[in-house]
Design brief:
Length: 353
């Protein structure tokens, strides 16, 4: 059994998600101890339980320690399955983080998979579903699998209630990629939304983002606004946010996002998201700082050497690489220092479904 120290680095839930994801993919049992040891409230929360439970269903895994507050999980996969899987986090726990755990084994499943998930779609400390659909899924398609993400209803903190449908057409193996330089910007798009709030919140977020991007890059962004009349708003909790993405001449995609917060003007939300995208583009690299750590596990099991340019070498990336090496022993090289842009080379193991 592979032993993983969940307190390494940031000591967050990412180590657990990556560990069970790779365990499910390789069918190798794993024990993760000291889970979230460096957090104010160590141990599992509902969204961590959900991610492990969902991944376990894909491989009929035997799981010990799956309870709130547990700091140790033993995950023993048995056999891969396809089909339909439904899970309700029961809170505003991030649906994106559920998918972060389950999608990797799903891409090499024996049959197509459909996830029907309920929880948070736009919550702190996790990528919004819009980002997963418009950035993550686009880049992952270059590796071979087809991932279709449909947001049925948004879910904000504290009540959640968001609903997402995700369909995965798996492949026999993942392709390696070379995506180092971003190239010239071809277009910028985005989604600015608000629920259980006045329509002008989404409009003001979008307007300032468009203004900043045109001023800094000379490009008029196409940002769709999404809002609901007060009399016909099905959402459970109020909230707002904006996701932006830029597509280059060579089909590279960079994305950023920003959630609205109490006492923060909508104009500032849009401005901060736009400036962050400008910063990502200015590095000239093809993979943004949010995507790089999510992408590396896929490259680790792809067929051949992948080379990606990352806009920022993050602590999340370093932690995920450490976890991958502990479980797979994959050779991964980083060119550059933490906090700066750089290049990552991953010598994939060519795992087959």
């Amino acid at each position: 059994m592979i032993e993983i120290d969940g307190s390494y680095g940031e000591g967050g839930g990412q180590i657990l998600r990556t560990s069970v994801s790779l365990s499910a993919l390789t069918l190798k049992p794993v024990r993760v101890a000291n889970i979230r040891a460096n957090r104010p409230q160590p141990g599992l929360k509902k969204q961590h339980l959900g991610g492990v439970e969902l991944t376990a269903r894909l491989v009929n895994a035997k799981v010990d320690g799956l309870r709130i507050g547990s700091t140790e999980v033993i995950f023993q996969p048995q056999e891969r399955y396809g089909g339909e899987f439904t899970l309700d986090v029961g809170t505003a726990g991030s649906i994106s983080l559920l998918l972060q755990a389950a999608l990797l084994p799903a891409t090499l499943a024996p049959n197509p998979i459909t996830f029907k998930l309920r929880g948070g779609t736009d919550v702190n400390w996790s990528p919004p579903i819009d980002y997963l659909r418009e950035v993550f899924a686009r880049v992952l398609s270059k590796l071979g699998p087809s991932i279709e993400i449909q947001q049925i209803r948004r879910g904000h903190y504290p009540r959640g209630g968001g609903e997402v449908l995700c369909r995965v057409i798996p492949v026999q193996h993942l392709n390696s990629i070379k995506s180092v330089d971003f190239g010239e910007v071809r277009e910028i798009s985005g989604i600015s939304h608000c629920v259980r709030l006045p329509e002008h919140v989404a409009t003001r977020q979008a307007s300032l983002a468009i203004e900043v991007l045109h001023d800094k890059l000379g490009i008029k962004a196409a940002i769709h606004t999404e809002s609901y009349p007060k009399s016909n708003d099905p959402h459970l909790s109020p909230g707002s946010g904006i996701v932006l993405w830029a597509i280059s001449e060579n089909s590279s995609v960079l994305g950023t996002d920003r959630l609205g917060e109490k006492r923060e003007r909508a104009e500032l939300v849009g401005t901060k998201a736009a400036l962050q995208l400008v910063d990502e583009i200015s590095t000239g690299k093809a993979i943004d700082s949010h995507l790089c750590d999510m992408l590396v596990p896929y490259l680790a099991v792809a067929d051949g050497m992948s080379e990606i340019g990352v806009t920022k070498i993050t602590s999340h990336l370093i932690t995920n690489i450490w976890t991958i090496k502990k479980i797979l022993g994959t050779r991964i090289e980083i060119e550059g220092d933490i906090g700066e842009s750089g290049v990552v080379r991953v010598f994939g193991q060519g795992l087959l479904s």
